[in-house]
């Protein structure tokens, strides 16, 4: 079923929208949650919570890119769950490592007064990502959006492990430089 048809089901408040969403995007959302949580039960719960959040958000929202909309909800739910249940063992420590790697080039947003700055940072991040070659952008997103391990990224793109690490190091350096040129204080 196409996204527009699924969205029409949400707008009509037909419960079938949830099962169609599960059929179309269940594996995608589960994968996002899994790479953050490394727990079947927690990942399943995040996916189910994603369907509930989508149900509650549509209408009034009508997302233009349904997959991105669902992926963002799943990711945010998984990050919240990860924070609640955080231990160094959970997720093989990858979440901590990934967040630490980005911390050196992205300022921390802690208060609601900085919400406008956060939105501007998001705009700049998206603009920066559009400047990258496709593969470099995909590797960066796989690591920092989907929180995949280096070895998974290397396998996915047929790269050596050290090549992935070097690519990410260089991309973070480019990001830092780009943000500094845009006036972001790190």
TrEMBL record:
Keyword entries, A-Z: DNA-binding, Sigma factor, Transcription, Transcription regulation
GO function terms (MF aspect): DNA binding; sigma factor activity
Domain RNA polymerase sigma factor 70 region 4 type intervals: 127-175
Cleaved signal peptide residues: none
GO terms classed as biological process: DNA-templated transcription initiation
Ranges for domain RNA polymerase sigma-70 region: 24-85
InterPro entries: RNA_pol_sigma-70-like, RNA_pol_sigma-70_dom, RNA_pol_sigma70_r2, RNA_pol_sigma70_r4_t2, RNA_pol_sigma_r2, RNA_pol_sigma_r3/r4-like, WH-like_DNA-bd_sf
PANTHER family recorded: RNA POLYMERASE ECF-TYPE SIGMA FACTO (PTHR43133), RNA POLYMERASE SIGMA FACTOR HI_1459-RELATED (PTHR43133:SF8)
Family to which this protein belongs: Belongs to the sigma-70 factor family. ECF subfamily.
Protein's name according to its UniProt entry: ECF RNA polymerase sigma factor SigW
